[in-house]
Amino acid sequence: MFGIDWLDPHTLIRDYGNIAVFITCIIVYVETGLLVGFFLPGDSLLFLIGLFLASPQAPMPLWLACILISTSAWLGDQTGYWIGRKAGPAVFNKPDSKLFSHRNVEATERFFAKYGSKAIIVAHFVPVMRTFVPVAAGVGKMPYPQFLRLNFIAVIVWGSGVTTLGYFLGGVPFVNEHVELVTLSFIVLSFIPIALELLKVWRERRASK
């Protein structure tokens, strides 16, 4: 369970079956609540969980899984916000490592500048941003009632929306026959926004030298 393979969504569902939803909830919490969780497979995992729930082997109804996943995302975001609120800017003032990059911080700043408070919602559909944006909201001392309201919308739309999308696409023959291709396409599309933001950061750094 502690090898890297268990982070692969296909492996998770194949090997853990009935408890895959609960493991997904843990992964979602870590990805959205802790700065070290940005590499976790959030979008693709929710999509595949939706496909799994559409099968006869589903361990629980879709509505229950959506509640559990959305609640995990909400708790994770609250954790991230309060880490940023209590630690302040110092939380981003640590050296680059495999689990932390200042390029991600700069991309987050650009993301906030582009979307404003709506970044709380949009970030959930962008890998890396859904990890850093709640923390940045806390660091920037976004009023908690405002964060709470936007975050509630975000976790419902993302946690329930992506899972439900997978559930209904599970009834499409092409999707069932090409699960890996569809999932890979989903991952690539979700990474395009953050890739563009990081590219802009890289170009600005080169231009400033």
UniProtKB/TrEMBL annotation:
Pfam families: VTT_dom (PF09335). GO terms for cellular component: plasma membrane. The chain crosses the membrane at residues 20-40, 60-76, 150-169, 181-199. InterPro entries: DedA-like, VTT_dom. Keywords: Cell membrane, Membrane, Transmembrane, Transmembrane helix. It is found in: Cell membrane. Residues 40-167 form the VTT domain. This is Unannotated protein. It comes from freshwater metagenome.
